[in-house]
Structure formats: C-alpha cells, structure tokens
Amino acid sequence: MNDMTASYQLLPGAPGSPVILHVPHSSRAVPAPVRQGIVLDDAALERELDHITDSHTAEIAAAAADRCATTPWRFVNRLSRLVVDPERFPDEREEMLSVGMGAVYTRTTHREELRPAGYDGRSLVEQYFEPYAAAMTAAVTERLAAVGRAVIVDVHSYPTAPLPYELHGDGPRPPICLGSDDFHTPEELRLAAERAFAGFGGTGINSPFAGTYVPLAHYGKDPRVGALMVEIRRDVYMTEPGGPAGPGLDTLADALAELVDAVSTV
Q1: How many beta carbons lie within 10 A of that of residue 42, not counting itself?
Q2: Does residue 5 register a pLDDT over 90?
Q3: Percentage of the chain modeled with pLDDT above 70
Q4: What phi, psi does 49 have (nearest 5°)?
Q5: Which residues pair with 225 in a beta bridge?
Q6: Taking all residues of the chain, what is their mean pLDDT, rounded to a whole number?
Q7: Alpha carbon 130 to its chain's center
C-alpha cells in the first residue's frame, strides 16, 4: 500500500448524478509501516478494529448503488481510520482531540494507549490525509462542474451501546441517526432521508453523532454542496462488535437507494 492513491477509490456513477456516497470508515486495513507505530498487540488491535470500524458499510453503499435508477458516485476509504481519519479537522478545531482522536488517533475507543505519548502524526497526515482530502475535493468540484450541484451522503454505523471515547454518548441512539449541518443540509434532503429510513424503528437528528462531511474547500462556502450523514445503529444489520452482516443489510441498501434516487431527481 505504498501508492498513496491506493488508500481511496472513486467509483464512477452516472454522468448526470450529483450524489457521492462517501464511505470513510469501512476498512480494517492497516499498512505494515503504520502498524509499527501502534502499541497494541495483534489480538488487541483486532478487538479495536471490531469496535472502531463501520463494518459492512461499503457493502451497503455498493448494493444501494446497484439498485439506483441513477447510479451515484462512490468514494471509499480503503484503509482503516486507525491510519488517519479523513473526517476529522486536521488541526485544533477538532473536538475529538480531547480524547486522542484527531486526524491521527493516539487513544483507543476505550481511551487506552494506541500510539506512544508525544507521537507525531504529521507524516501520516501528509501521506494519507492530505491526498484523500484533495481527491474528495476534486470529486465534489467535478460534480459541481458537471451538474451544478453535489450531494454527499456519508455512510456510517455506530454501536448499540456507547463506547468510552464518545463525547456525546448520553443522548438518544435511534436505529438511524441523521447528521446534519445548518449550511449544507437543506430540509428537503433531511426529509427525504427520514422517509427512506422510516421502516427501521425511528430516525433521529445529530445524536449520538452530529454534523456531516464536506471538504474544507467547500465547507461553509458553497451552498450548491449538500451533505447528510447516515449513521446506522449496528444491531439493525450486524452482529456486534465486528461480526457478520445479517438480512438488515439488504433492507438498508434498498432504503439508501431510495434516498439517492429521491435526491437525484430533485
């Protein structure tokens, strides 16, 4: 995995689709040079990957894309978020720095040591975070040029019970949490998601996870970029933590495809 471009994959959709399904946390892959900087033994690392990985979300996005009338674009992280987390702010703006989970994690989901004290993550940011951000920015810019708008649907999952790293884990944990942004999430996008996911036992807004991903070049600047985060509670579709997917995956793919088609035709 020495080629930086191998850390992410842009899968083309229909030329007229504004939608990019973004899947940032589905991979468990940790390149050997990065593994050397992690203090956990192999068994502990596997347990951490069980907790921190949004397992099977890439499969949900792929199945949804296959079912859409207008195929969305997909931007998929091929590396674990333990390498870098492409959705964090790369500086002091990131609130998760308080629990050692900025762009480069130094603590685990249980607030234990992941990397040594004083670890300098700048080389990982340069090698992985910055190329990823540039490529995602380019993908959004290209959709704007092609169809005049872009809609990022961020596909995530979260555990049924809160983990110690969560800063806002004491709030509601609905089957589907929709993360929204005051600037980038128009009401019609949120309502379309609520309709699409109505059959899973309830949706909530910004709890336990809030906000949504927009490349910094567009964030808070370009209203043509819409964005919504879809956080799926893991018991809806899989065995926790890190276990196999169940029949819920297929139903979720149908709902996600319904959302994409609704957005594509606006």
Answers
A1: 8
A2: no
A3: 98
A4: -65, -35
A5: 150
A6: 95
A7: 16
Query: Distance (Å, rounded) from C-alpha 189 to C-alpha 184?
Result: 10
The stretch 73-92 carries a mean pLDDT of 95
Q: Which two tokens stand for residue 114?
A: 């992941």
Beta-carbon count within 10 A of 252 CB:
29
Distance CA 222, CA 132 (A): 20
Do residues 29 and 81 lie in contact, with contact meaning Cβ atoms separated by under 8 Å? no
Adjacent-strand bridge partners of 247: none
Query: 8: phi > 0 → left, psi -120 to 50 → alpha, else beta; which?
Result: beta
> Which residues make beta-bridge pairs with 204?
177
Asked if 262 contacts 196 with a C-beta cutoff of 8 angstroms, the reply is yes
Per-residue model confidence (pLDDT) at position 266: 72
Report the alpha-carbon distance of residue 189 to residue 117 in Å, rounded.
42
Distance, CA of 31 to chain centre? 20
pLDDT for the residue numbered 1? 32
Q: Given strand 150-158, what is the order of strands in its sheet?
A: 8-11, 73-77, 19-23, 150-158, 225-233, 176-179, 203-205
Which pLDDT does position 92 carry in this prediction?
82
Distance from C-alpha of 139 to C-alpha of 215, rounded to nearest angstrom: 10
